[in-house]
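User: Predict the complex.
Assistant: Input components as received:
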Amino acid sequence: MTTPGGLAEVRALVFDVFGTVVDWRSSVAAEVRSLGWPVDPPAFADAWRAGYPSAMQEVREGRLPWTHLDGLHRRILDALLAERGLTPPEAEVAELNRVWHRLAPWPDSVVGLRRLKARFPVITLSNGNVSLLLDMARHAGLPWDAVFSAELFGHYKPDPEVYLGAARLLDLEPQQLLMVAAHPSDLRAAAACGLKTAYVPRPMERGPGGRMASWTPSEFDLVADDFVALAGALGA
Amino acid sequence: MTTPGGLAEVRALVFDVFGTVVDWRSSVAAEVRSLGWPVDPPAFADAWRAGYPSAMQEVREGRLPWTHLDGLHRRILDALLAERGLTPPEAEVAELNRVWHRLAPWPDSVVGLRRLKARFPVITLSNGNVSLLLDMARHAGLPWDAVFSAELFGHYKPDPEVYLGAARLLDLEPQQLLMVAAHPSDLRAAAACGLKTAYVPRPMERGPGGRMASWTPSEFDLVADDFVALAGALGA
């Protein structure tokens, strides 16, 4: 099988992780439910995730010194608990904060990554911190060749330092990297840095009927329904 | 099997790579031999490697801006060729410089790492640059969970920033890391940062009759003949 036009020079695949590789919402909701707190578990998961862009923005604007994602998750979680007047034991909160280290993959993620890895290096390019991504990989069986994180660059996506930093560490030109993500905004930022882009929609990321960002097929180099289809499209 | 005393709190293994995991001398000599240059291949490999400490020292003292190991290898190689009055084609020199990306593992490395990985995260902590370590892993089948490199920290071992940087990225205390190396000096620097240490002597690293650095058994937390023995000693 030949690679799609424009992708022949791709030498490595870099992956967004939350939502693209793993189903954060179901995993977080399940652990929240198991704690028995008086909250709606999926709504709590959504609220936790919803705090993440503004927390990163505080770092980006220098209002908060560099804080890795575990730290941001904890700040958001503490605020959610305070808003709801909940005061669970510290050990329970600390343990829940690490739920992001043990998210479950989408059903196609592991089998698709294994196929892709046979042909290309497969590497994370995530805002998750290194220890989070490493724990998640061992928990979920994700066969990464390397773990690249915002933490290595001191910048969160979509800052260009992350995409260009990945190219630098791989000793490749930006157009030799294919960014794989379920989020058009991530892909647009990658493309602005010269990376090639593959969009893998994950319609269940925000649950049944959840909103998806709008996009047009022509704006990405490749669109695939899941990682197995992506492997097929790339001849892997 | 119980873990040796003092190692019960170890949560991750970090590995020196050149000499410890891979046999650089045989691999480099074989490629030099295949080029047919008028040099003694093992002696040329030794001379190339011998230039490496002083090249790193230039970086350490700021006489040379940060240069990754591929860059240092090329500087040393160019000097060796000039000393010998050799002027091979640029493409040949550039290709040989990447021989360090395709070094062969010691016979026990892959099987031992696979056993160790079942119990602990196994992670490089090498002066090799990220792309070098990544290529080598795919070439040699080294099942790393993550690739940590001097390049991530802007410092070469034995600078403490490398050992402490690994602990920081893993969100672990230094004593929760076990540094595995064939070089006492690397282990002593790791121990000075609080890491636990495992010495795996590689008597063939510098060829038959090659000199090994002196050491005493009591200075390391563990000594193992190879990675399979290391796995056994750690109950992996």
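Chain B has eleven helices and six strands.
Let me know if you want any component modeled separately.
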